[in-house]
Specification:
Elements lengths: L13 H32 L2 H28 L2 H24 L5 H29 L5 H26 L5 H11 L1 H8 L8 H4 L8 H12 L2 H17 L5 H7 L8 H20 L10 H26 L5 H31 L2 H30 L1
Helix pairs in contact: 1-2, 1-4, 1-5, 1-6, 1-7, 2-4, 2-9, 2-15, 3-4, 3-6, 3-7, 4-15, 5-12, 5-14, 9-15, 10-13, 10-14, 10-15, 11-12, 12-14, 13-14, 14-15
């Protein structure tokens, strides 16, 4: 009998379970900031171009530090690197709170602090992904990746919806403060993990394992695996031309009649894709049975593209009212989110299974650039097009 619901076997491992539970808290907090930044930028400027520009300010540190951070994850104790970057994320969120609470009203300060935060995130994410195979057997990696993706998307639902509700009683700056407080959970959990020293092969690389040479070694490995490489290329294309989130503030206001400062309509749009992704994660019990994982990635990307076309058509037909077309649009976003979750989970599993431990950090850095960098580049492209 085919298993339907998510496989929770990895949660029986204490280290993974603690890290996963901390992720529930920190992902919700992080999504409060993800909600707050575009809302603050649009409220300050009334211009989607600045919202789109936030994608560029996030993309550059994401690429640079995602690739370097992946190399550093192969070059030093991964536990220590997780502690350092988790603390950095907390400090960045505190500074975002300070600028908003003090009423600086400066777009460039917001964008600069966003870049700092993304730099720490870009190092933290591949390090965390590379650490998981140290905790679990290979056979449990598909289930573990599904659980992690589900948590990320759960936070992406709860975060925006919680932000939309909280903004009735608190100001925007407090969302940043709540994110900073949430960062304490992974810091505490990571301190309890066992050390994760470098492998002998990584240590043998010497000083070259810290810089550009180490990053290039990861790209050379990736170039030799055409299936993995092409799965990244097609996903990057799908994200750049299909991810509409930079348009959410403007569409919430102009297409669906929501307030210019965000509100419930914006929160629904921001959460819809994650609803679909969580549904995909909950119903991911069949993931470990898939043998042709590359084909599953391609099928998921096709579904994503069709769903984004449907969302655009529904938005155009809404005519400035939050009527039935809003719910049709949300349905298409949810379908796209589910497809994206399937694609990301299988691509992460492919990387973790084929890579040796001394290269996992670097390849996860490339994975981060594709998964997170593609949507941010899309933010810039779509924001400029809508201005």
């Amino acid at each position: 009998m085919v298993r339907l619901f998510a496989d929770t076997t990895p949660l029986r491992t204490p280290d993974f379970r603690r890290l996963w539970l901390a992720g529930v808290v920190t992902v919700i907090g992080g999504n409060l900031t993800i909600f707050a930044v575009p809302v603050q930028l649009y409220a300050l400027t009334q211009n989607s171009a600045y919202v789109g520009l936030s994608g560029l300010f996030a993309l550059v540190p994401l690429i640079v530090f995602g690739l370097l951070g992946g190399a550093w994850a192969d070059a030093m104790d991964r536990r220590l690197l997780l502690i350092i970057t988790s603390c950095g994320l907390a400090v960045a969120s505190v500074l975002l709170w300070v600028q908003a609470a003090a009423g600086f009203d400066n777009v460039w300060v917001v964008l600069l602090l966003l870049s700092v935060q993304q730099a720490f995130y870009a190092i933290n994410a591949p390090t965390r992904a590379a650490a998981i195979p140290r905790m679990l057997p290979i056979a449990q990696l598909p289930a573990a990746n599904s659980l992690n993706m589900t948590v990320q998307q759960f936070g992406a639902i709860v975060g925006p919806l919680l932000a939309g509700v909280l903004l009735r009683w608190i100001d925007l700056s407090t969302l940043y403060l709540l994110d900073a407080i949430a960062c304490l959970a992974p810091i505490w959990v990571t301190f309890r993990l066992a050390r994760m020293p470098v492998t002998e092969s990584s240590a043998a690389e010497g000083s070259s394992r810290w810089g550009v040479g180490a990053v290039l070694a990861g790209f050379r490995y990736l170039a030799g695996n055409q299936v993995v490489l092409m799965s990244f290329v097609v996903d990057l294309i799908a994200m750049i031309f299909g991810m509409p989130r930079a348009l959410f503030p403007q569409m919430a206001h102009e297409s669906f009649g929501g307030p210019v400062t965000g509100g419930t309509t914006m929160a629904l749009l921001a959460a819809a894709m994650s609803v679909g992704a969580v549904a995909g994660g909950v119903l991911s019990g069949w993931f470990p049975r898939i043998r042709r994982q590359g084909l599953a990635v391609i099928a998921a990307i096709v579904v994503w593209g069709l769903a984004m076309v449907g969302f655009g058509v529904a938005g155009g037909a809404a005519d400035g009212r939050a009527g039935p077309m809003l719910w049709v649009a949300l349905g298409f976003l949810a379908a796209g989110g589910g497809a994206d979750m399937v694609s990301a989970a299988f691509r992460s599993t492919i990387l973790q299974e084929v890579a040796s431990d001394d290269l996992r950090g670097r390849l996860q850095g490339v994975f981060l650039v594709v998964v997170a960098g593609g949507p941010r580049l899309a933010d810039t492209v779509h924001g400029a097009a809508a201005a």
